[in-house]
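Support request, priority: normal
Reporter: lab tech (M.K.)
Component: structure prediction queue

Hi team, I submitted a job for AraC family transcriptional regulator from Noviherbaspirillum saxi yesterday, and the status page still shows it as pending. I've pasted the exact input below so you can check whether something in the sequence is tripping the parser. The sequence length should be 272 residues. Please let me know if I need to resubmit or if it's stuck on your end.
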Amino acid sequence: MKHRPSDIFTAPQSELNSLRTLPRPVYGHIRGLPNRPIGHRHTHSWVQLSYALHGVIEVVTSTGRFVAPPLRAIWIPARVPHAVRCAPHTEIRSLYIESAAVPRHASECRVLAVTPLTRELIRTFSEFPAEYDEQGTEGRLVQVLLDQLACAPELGLSLPWPQDARLRHICTEMNAKPDGGASLADYGARLHLSERTLSRLFRQQTGLSFRLWRQRARILSALPLLERGDRVTDVALACGYESMSAFIAAFREQMGMTPGELLAACAMVSQA
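Reply from support: The job had stalled in the queue. We restarted it manually and it finished. Here are the results:
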């Protein structure tokens, strides 16, 4: 069955789920999802790459939380159960890719950098029909896109989720209340564990120190607030920072840029 571009990019989720095979190794899908997060766990038979032109995407699996503002994308391996949340008015462009078409075989989600070239390749691909010409110009562009995705650097915009029930309770609380001020000692006392034991448990279960895990949780929580236009001062307070300078320093450590630089870059993407 032939599809026009408008058919592809407005097709409901049920149509995607009805496909037994993709019409081509890469299938394009654009969805505007204002106030319609896909909160239930679901899977796809193919690799999924979700990229937001506007807004912030969040993917949650049993092992982590993955957040992508503009200029980032979330790589979701085939058959990994995941839920998707997004900020209001988020405009998502998703690619569904046959596993055999990509060399990246990660078993868990990853957040990838989206270069200007990759962004334009995704935009150009969005105009292709579902059954694009694999042997012609369209097929060659798709291969360049796949090559760019294969070498895209991974970014630390994920929050590893512990399996230990005691730690999971702590992480759930810090994730839900990024402005919370409880210390490692406070949590240790609550669980009747020494700071040293709790610190060691954090590293074993998440690969991060307590300080770094909480810092990352706070910065990830800040992204949707910044993207919707909240003042940086208000975002800093909402995420548990007592001063603007401390927030900016932590943000730069996690994101590689200041909040202002990220917002400026996102604005350029929106205007492009």
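The first strand starts at residue 26 and ends at 32. The chain is about 45% helix and 20% strand. Let us know if anything else looks off. Ticket resolved.
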